[in-house]
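Protocol step 4 of 6.
Sequence for Duplicated orphan permease (Parapedobacter luteus) entered exactly as in the expression construct, tag removed. Do not edit the line below.
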Amino acid sequence: MLKNYLKATFRNLWKTRGYSFLNIFGLAVGITAASLIFLWVADEMTYDNLPGHENIYIVKSKQTFDGATNVFDAVPGLLGPAVKDEIPGIQYAARVAWASSSLFSVGDHGIYQSGHFAEPDLMQIFSLEFVEGDKATAMANPTDLVLTQSAAARIFGDEPALGKLVRVDNDKSYTVSGVVRDLPKNSTFQFDWLIPFEVYEQENQWIRQWRNNVLMTYIRLEPSANPVDVNGKLHDFAIRKSVNEQLNTHNLLYPMARWRLYNSFDRDGNEQEGRMKYVRLFSIIAWVVLLIACINFMNLATARSEKRAKEVGMRKVIGASRPSLMFQFLGESIVMALISTLLAVVLVYSSIGVFNNLVEKELAMDIFKPAHLIFLGGIVLACGLLSGIYPAWYLSSFNPISTLKGGKQKAGTAGFIRRGLVVLQYAASITLIICTVVIFQQVQYTKGRELGYERSHVLLTPLQGALVNHIEAIKEQLVATGVVENAGISESRLLNIGSNTWHMNWEGKDPGKQVMIANLRVDADFIPTLGMELVDGRNFRARMLGDSSSIVINEAFAKLISPDANVAGQTVYWDKTPYTIAGVVKDFVYNNVYTLPSPMFFRPFEVQPYGQLNIKIKAGTDLTEALPKIEDIIQTHNPGYPFDYHFFDDLFDAKFKSEMLIQKLAGVFAVLSIVISCLGLFGLAAFTAERRTKEMGIRKVLGASISSLVGLLNREFVMLVLVSCAVAFPFAWWMMSDWLSNYQYRTDLHWWVFALAGAGALVIALLTVSSQAIKAALMNPTKSLRDE
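Step 5 output, structure tokens:
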């Protein structure tokens, strides 16, 4: 019996191979798209899934200023050791300095690596696995150095690294005391190297104050500890410890399971979904694309049903029961779903490299992995049953006498369901198109906003080694090349200002009002290098002569002091130290590119072995000519370091990484959903044209033109697309309004975006349907009426 069913199945597939191909290929494309998305979703959902992750936390700080609550990872330098000693339930606690990139040299070979100064407990917190060395002693001495396997391979190649000397930043030498396995790629915490924290602490004694939130602190709780109890004791811990420092900081444990997907907070300090909303969005998209493919299967199978009407009637006459017919047609659907799934596996393996480049991950699919086998098997059964149950019921319901006479089955509810499914398909596709366009508009709108400075042709190179000792000579030589307009120094990159204070006071300030104000050390050439506009007062004097107690503030800060922002010459106090406002610059964008400007000020740069040299290359200069000249000057003064640089434009664009990823993914799957939906329209058009063949013949005999016949068949599908627009437009408007509400600086929702998406969908639908309509209209009426 089963053998006969299989024979009948493959005979029918071959007999209608054109439609079988559309069926199988459409479903395979849908399964491929859904599989790729689910691989991405699975990777995101398993982020930070390290051994014991349920007991790992980072300590966050929460501060409220001027009605807004900020939640961030930096905590006081004294917090880590104190909580470990005084709060029960904490098994390990490690202070960690912010990641930094350093030059690691062995002989003449040097390479930049990123890592942390950290306390030994960090190795226990993250369960680091040693492949060389001993965890118990790896960070016992201040000259110890722990490398990851990949970092050790980059520095030493295939040779063992244990016990070898490495020179860091052409200064101190460290001995490799251990090599650990790399943490998984889908881990938030990453590093190439670890150096004992005591080295950092000795060079930065200022961190030993409760008021300075400067370090990250990671904690691992005892398995039996209650996180709620620990959080309660931690909440006011720093405030109680710093009664003389007017601290306004509360602390909280933030679990590792939420670092990747939920690490976002609103102005009230409440946790937001963060990246999780994108995971949910694309999970929905995956199911929608898969559903669209199944809908196509149903419509295409139904569209060909009348070709098998006599077969069904004959089988019923010779004794076939309705259940046996349903079993046969369900079996055909499952076989086709199996073929589609196998084709989808091939497509996934073929396209996963391109997809990885798109999402910047290293995803892999192993069909022999139990989870993947269950997933694929589930798709075969779900798609086969879901796609086949309706056609099986529809085909097996045919009246044998009517079908053997050549009668047509009434569409009835079947026609309504098919049209409803097409509306659902196109509504989903139109929604995706609108979302893609709006996301693109938001990114472009923000990129095109008034920044308050020039970002084009600005090169940043780190101040390393001896550069800072010769900086004035370097700047003069750079300008003398003829390719550089100006050069200035900043303590950090303008888009990554990390220094903030709430200890600023001025005459007339409300004593009860606390304001968080960012600050950045710069030299006198920084403001003109970036082309910032002074709206009041002056810039710093050359070489900061007489300006050691001067600051330059932005308009947002100036308006806090005086509504007219004319505050040049006034005095403000940082703690009790007076500073004179030399000038006011026009508001500019820093840190978060999506927010409105917030108060900040520039203060005089002091000689220090770190910072950024900002170099403005003359407009119109060929970069292939400029870069070698700049590199030559930098290398002359700093021969021990490779020339490392970034362009401001690239750093600015990197701020849009998440939005660009969403835009790309939404765009790709919007196109796929349109393609799959077109297959569904094609099937429905074929079905409709087949049912109305005799009607078309009669109309043609009575004098109807080809264009009128084409218009007659197209009219129904135009209505379906219009109904799809009516469904998609309100939903897309609501969804995009909600998404845009996350940004202070945002574009508007324009009516023409919706009109364009609807018009595009209509044109694509007409092109798809017209192929079948024209074919039906051109048919010789004698062929369609010969049985009458």
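Step 6, annotate. The mean pLDDT is 84.
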